[in-house]
Every structure is written in structure tokens, then in C-alpha cells.
Amino acid sequence: MLDLRAIAPHVSGGSKRQILGVIADVAARSYGLEAAVVLDALLERESAGSTGLGHGVAVPHARIPGLSGMKAVFVKLDTPTAFEAVDDQPVDLLLALLAPETGGSEHLRALASVSRRLRQPELRQQLRQARTADAIHALLVREARSTAA
């Protein structure tokens, strides 16, 4: 679900919209999607309520027309940014989930799984210390395998 090319380990902060724009650009490059379509879908979802989970984490998500399966984008911000999170703390770790329009409960299961994993203080600390896309990918893949077991 998370391609190594879809990890951006050093992103400048900015506004919530700018960060979602970065996610859309990474998704476009990594998965051959239209950045504008991804950004519009993410903004529409955010307008329903912030996807900031707290503890510096957000899980933006949206259904994307034409997508054939679940995809993810991970962004680590150099400077935490206001994201209207439930705890009012700025966000620096974002794992965006992109789901097919027709996808049923797979989207909800993935969202629940990612949210549960990113609530773990140790994983958040390790992700913040990771400097490369490879290191971040290894942490997320290892964590996914350990929670599936």
C-alpha cells in the first residue's frame, strides 16, 4: 500500500492546504494520479472535519476516482504545522490513505489499522528520528507485520 517513492521525509511546513498539496504531488508522481484530483478529494474530506489524530499525527484520506487499490503517502514535516488536530497540537507526521471510489470496507479497515499504529508513542518517536525514506518505510512495514501477527 505504501510505495517507497511515496515517502517524503523532509518537507517544509506551511498551511494545511500546502501540505495536502505536497501529498497530492507525491501521490501523482508515485502512483500516476492527477494531483489536482487528489488535492480536491483531500480538501473535501478535510472540510468535513480534521483528520488530525493528535500527538502530531494526521491521517488525511479520500476516495479517488479511477484508483484500482489502496495507496498511501507518508510525509514528515521539518516544522510541525497547525492542522486543527483533536488536541490542537501541530502535526509533523502525516500518512495519507487514498482509496478507490468503489472500495468497500477495505478503506475503513486500513484507516483503523493506520490510526491504531500511529497512536503508539514508540513508533512516532522512531518515525521522527528516521532521516530517510528507506528508514521510514522499514519502520512502517515492520510495524504493519507485527500488528498483523
TrEMBL record:
This is PTS system nitrogen regulatory IIA component. It comes from the Bacteria. NCBIfam families: nitro_reg_IIA (TIGR01419). Residues 1-143 form the PTS EIIA type-2 domain. InterPro entries: PTrfase/Anion_transptr, PTS_EIIA_type-2_dom, PTS_Nitro_regul, PTS_SugarTrans_NitroReg. Coiled coil: none annotated. SUPFAM superfamilies: Phoshotransferase/anion transport protein. CDD domains: PTS_IIA_fru.
